[in-house]
Specification:
This protein is an all-alpha fold. It has helices at about 1-15, 40-65, 70-90, 95-125. The protein is built from 4 helices and no strands. The longest helix has 30 residues, at about 95-125.
Length: about 140
């Protein structure tokens, strides 16, 4: 009787100690293999690459003091607006061709503005020599 009771207690203890693990699961119910949530989608990686380049350009301009604080603030605010627009568009999980084109155009325009403003700022500080002093 004791042996049966001990086996029953160990069996019950063994079943209660097995609990679901709290970590991301990559099974058939997750979006791991979902074609609508692919991170390797060509459009999303292109937008991600452009966002990275724009952010890097702004940070580089600030670090090298090629952008004034006011210009950098304006560019960062525009970057945040574009990121918010991307979140709004990708709320369904996937960007349409039109949404991708809009985001890409806005990011390319912001990248061009960043380059233009940093050159203008350098140009005005260096007397038109792009970084070289007149004296």
């Amino acid at each position: 009787m004791k042996k049966i009771l001990i086996v029953a207690i160990l069996f019950a203890f063994g079943l209660t100690s097995v609990q679901a693990q709290n970590y991301p699961q990559y099974d058939r119910y997750s979006s791991y293999n979902d074609p609508y949530h692919k991170k390797n989608d060509r459009r999303s990686t292109e937008i991600d690459r452009l966002q990275f380049e724009v952010k890097k350009g702004i940070e580089t301009g600030v670090r090298r003091r090629a952008l004034s604080p006011r210009e950098a603030s304006h560019l960062q605010n525009e970057y945040r607006r574009i990121a918010a627009l991307e979140r709004k568009y990708s709320n369904r999980g996937r960007l349409s061709n039109r949404e991708t084109r809009i985001l890409k155009d806005k990011l390319l325009r912001l990248m061009a503005d960043t380059q233009r403003l940093s050159k203008d700022y350098r140009n005005s500080r260096a007397g038109g020599q792009y970084g070289r002093s007149r004296y």
